[in-house]
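Give me structure tokens for this 471-residue protein.
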Amino acid sequence: MTTSALDRLVESLAGTVAVQDDRVVVKDEERLPDRMNGLAYEAVFSDAESKAAARWLIWEIAQALGIRPASIHELYMARGEGRCGCQFTVPAINLRMMSFDAARAVFRAARKLNAGALIFEIARSEMSYTDQRPAEYASSVLAAAIKESYRGPVFIQGDHFQAAAKKYTADPAAEMKAIYALIVEAIAAGFYNIDIDTSTLVDLSKPTLEEQQRLNFELCAQFTQFIRECEPQGVTISVGGEIGEVGGKNSTPEDLHAFMRGYNQSKGDVAGISKISIQTGTSHGGVILPDGTLANVAIDFDTLKKLSAMARKEYGMGGAVQHGASTLPEAAFSKFVEADACEVHLATAFQTLVMEHEATPEPLRQEMHEWLRVNAASERKPSDTDAQFFYKARKKAIGPFKEHFWTLPQKARDAIGASLEKQFTFLFEQLAVGGTTDLVAQFVHAPEIHQPAPGGGVKVVKGESVEGLAD
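Here you go.
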């Protein structure tokens, strides 16, 4: 009899788990973390049947241990109603590289500070150029939680489920269909937090704010209704909206009112958004100067504070969300708490840390640069220096070089992981999420959700062009 991929992987876990009636029983919780490295790797790089088996095992082990994908909706609603009793800003962390090792660093920092209010996320565009579909990303995060003996709800978020303006203009139905399909895929993978971004369709040429925001609020409402139809029993998925495209015009109170009036009228009686993303002066990845340094960014914290207060007091949401913040100076992060921002999105700085770390082999960096010279040449502006070009384009090399980083020598991975843990610890302290584990437990109740045992390989999702999509 041929040994199935599932049998082989259960055997590799050396008696720490057993499968009984399509459920996983944990036999040895103490020894299990030592077996997770191989299982995480199989979930990402193995053949289709083994990937499916590994992802199912990771999900079911996590369920058995009380590590459950969850929605942050109720916590944000409690905050909107003034029931939280403390001020903090939730970090939403985009892991583009070495997701298993990076997520381990997040969980180590979280355990050290007793931090429970934190989000793992990945954007529609990032799924493409980092080669991480939702099921893979969720598996890496959950495997990391098991490895680091973390317990409790795990918030996994679809960031910038964005309508590409050019694609929507050319074929609205096709772009809507693509986002609907992504929502279904993400929810199935355990993404119980989804940020809808139709702010790309705001038309500032229209004469009134309502007309400028119309496509934005109508489509956001449609996607909210669809999410409510797809969400698992016992879960109210946290949905976010966006009124100002990152890198564009700063948001105003009038923009927020125009969006929310139209959105609330359009969505019907389903539960609405729990937060609102605004623009206050940042850009994704920062602005790189010719010498390779980052330009200073002036965030309008007054606007952030004003709109966050409006979102809570007038619309019952958790508050306003800040994008594009990871490259800001260290002194800026505590100001998000002072401004009472609900959530802040952090991505590029972690990618930079990995790529520029002293433990990352120089020959690997040079190989990536040579790949970019050929494969990303069309993105280089005539005025770009090498430093500017590589900084802006190198994210495109993450997918092709993904396995190179996952399989770095253990010493290098440990060094990078330690540096990431230090950075996450600093951010969690600055954002005041230390000690939020009990608060999360008070408001978030993640149901036990099982997935059917794998009957074959993983479904291959066709890649898409991400031109024009935000990170």
